[in-house]
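We treat protein structure as text, and this decision shapes the records that our systems exchange. Because each token names a local backbone shape, the row as a whole describes the fold. An entry from our holdings is shown next, in its original layout:
>
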Amino acid sequence: MKDRQNPIKTGEKRSHIIKKQGLFAYALKTPCDIMVVHVILTKKGVHVMKIGVLTSGGDSPGMNAAVRAIVRSAEGYGYEVYGIRDGYRGLVADDMVVLDHKSVSGMLSRGGTFLGTSRLPEFKDEDVRKIAIENLRKRNISVLVTIGGDGTYRGAMELTRMGLKTIGLPGTIDNDIAGTDFTIGFHTAVETIVDAIDKLRDTSQSHRRCSIIETMGRKCGDLALFAGICGGAEFIITPEHQVDKDIIIDELKKHKAEGRRHAIIVVTEKQFDVHALAEEISEKSGFSSRATVLGYIQRGGSPSPEDRILASRMGSYAVDLISDGIFGVCVGVHDSRMIHMPFAHVIDQPRPKNDLYKLVKKVS
């Protein structure tokens, strides 16, 4: 017990205290001891770390799980967490609430984001960002964790350049962020798309039809790629894997001649007008064709087990980085390991072409 009486220098960082004194690391294991350590350190005049967390851009399943992990992992270090409502808009509007163990209870299985999200183009203005930083400083919040996609990362990087300590987590169904194998929400969206493909296949077989399914993804074809393979699509068309429509029509003619009853085409959004393609296929291939744009249904739903685990790991890892004094970075996963790298190494960087495209040629 004498380790509890070791002197602590006023102003010494909490993360250093936890590392230097084994008993404090031990004492943080139970809720009761967390309170004891918090009071001791506060009375010694040591600053209590306060963390702000927000979700921004398009919502994705697993964002709530990430916030939950941040809050509960932060408790282990004696940190306080503030939830910022509606992304950067709430940061500028000073709309924040203290989060604790109870307030994130039941969030693991909830889709969307309970903190809310929005887009704020005005955040590109430095004067607007100064308001955001001031709102954090007046609450003594020294670190901001942002969860979102490319636009969210850009905002965090600009705040870092202005002196704020930030960490980013990749939250987007599109899986279009460099520096990570998978983003929070991607696996759940793939499951949603595969379920839709399975249902459309049933009706396509019944009507001898070619079904075209358009997915989200922006400039990244991973949603169409993964779901297309899982759904047994005859054709997968993405920004990384273009297929000429004349080739598609010729192949469908062969399928028709062979007596096949249906075909599935999965395509990433914004490649072409899928309804116009369906009309052309109906006119030239011998198959009746219909196009289905899945749209925002891909963003909803309870997160899959993979996304719950990934979000929990990333949220906890972000807090570990804070404890180690590492900021201005974004979190990722590579070969099942947690990694981090500076925002500048991720934003606007291309993702390598997925090896699964080799599989497409063999099994489609």
